[in-house]
Each structure stands twice: as structure tokens, then as C-alpha cells.
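Write out this protein's structure.
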Amino acid sequence: MEVALGPKSIATPGHAEVFLGRDIAPGWFGWIFPLGGGLARVGTGSVDRRIPPGRCLAEFISRHPECFADCERLGYAGGVVPIGTPAKIYADRVMLVGDAAGQVKPVSGGGLYFGLQAAAFAAETALEAFSSGDFSAAALARYQLRCSALTREIQVGLALRKFYLSLDEHHMDGLVRFFGRRFWTRLVARYGDIDYPSTLAGKIARAGLTRSTLLRVANMIPGMELKGAELLGGMRAFPSAAAAESAATDVPEADGGFAEDERRGD
């Protein structure tokens, strides 16, 4: 949904905001993305096919009136986000690109970047096919090979998505608070890449936080205030992560199915 943010909205211009919660976005997330000029893109998603995305969007807006006070709705769009890739994305005289090939980031649902990269690979393969006059599946198989790095990134995203879907809201709250600590925010600022989450995932894993230890952290933290010796004492159960936090100076500060709606401020 595209909206014009009203003068009373507390949404921060120039900052993307992400909202978690099964009531507003079961298995997904809600977002406010600034577009400039007082405009913002607002959306939610759901993995539950029984829940219309529009209902999630309405719930999201109603639960956060402070963000949408006096906003004007300018446009609305919705659709299905394909998650996962088919075994083959080519056949005789055929190459699949974009949503048709499942070239979508499983974590965010975005597909423009992967789709454009795959389109370049498809064009390169097509030029070779025209040059040789061979449009067989065997010749076009080179396209899938060229997409192998994208496919690996999608597989990492699928694993991250599976982990996210395994968490309840208490665990999500705990992990958000945990990763709000200075070391982790600096790590994310340096290595976070929405198009290539495997880079950050690898850094986190090397800091000692594998899937199993993340679940232990999530179980340890819900309801705790993340300060003082309590958390530091709990971190001793994860020596690699504790050592990583103590070496925080090694990470320099970095430079500075969905439904959408858009609004604009005066």
C-alpha cells in the first residue's frame, strides 16, 4: 500500500521500519519503507493461506495508529510470493526467470535483484544459443549453472526462513533484544546484506551462534531485562559468542503472499 504520511505520524523519514507479530503478519513481517517526499510503502504478508493479506494489513494499521495518524492512502496492491526454486529452470527453447523460477529472497520476499541477475544470465545463454543455433535443453543448461550462486543464496534464505518460522513470539522478542546488543548491531551493520544473507549468517555462526545455540539463547532470554550480570552470566554458556562480544572492537562502525499501501505527508 502506498500512503502519504500525515503530519502526526511518528514514522521516521529515511528509516525503514520492520514489525513482527503473528497477529499482523503470521510467518512474515510488517514494514514501513520511506519513498521520499512524505511517501511511504506499507505492507504485511502471511504464510497462512486462510488469512487474506488485506486483513493483516488492516490489523497492522489499526495496531499502530501512531504511525498512520492522518495518513492518506494512495494505492493498494497485493500478490503471491513464490518461495523455493524448481529443480530445473530450463527446457528445450525455455528458460525461466524471476518469479517463474522462484528467484525470490525467502527472508524478505524481494525478487528484483535476483530476477535482474538471472535475466542477464538468460540473455547471455540466449546469445550463445542463437550463435550456435542450438536451443536444446542441453545447450540451455548453462543458464542454470550460471544461476548456481543465486540458487545457493536462496537455499541459505530458506534455511533462515525455516528457523524463523520455528520461533514463537516470546523467542522472537528475546532474539531481537539479544541482537540489539552493541556487538551484534555493529556486526549486522558491517556484514548485513539483504541480497546475500549468507555472509552475515556465516559470521554469526563463526561467533558461536549456530541454530541450536540460537534456540538456547531464545529460551534463556524471554522476559529478561538484557542488562547487568544476568545476561553476561547466561552468555558464558556460549563461550564463542561471549569471546566475540569481548572482541567487539574488531568490528568497526559502518557508515552511515504481501499487501502494500502508500501515503504522503503535507
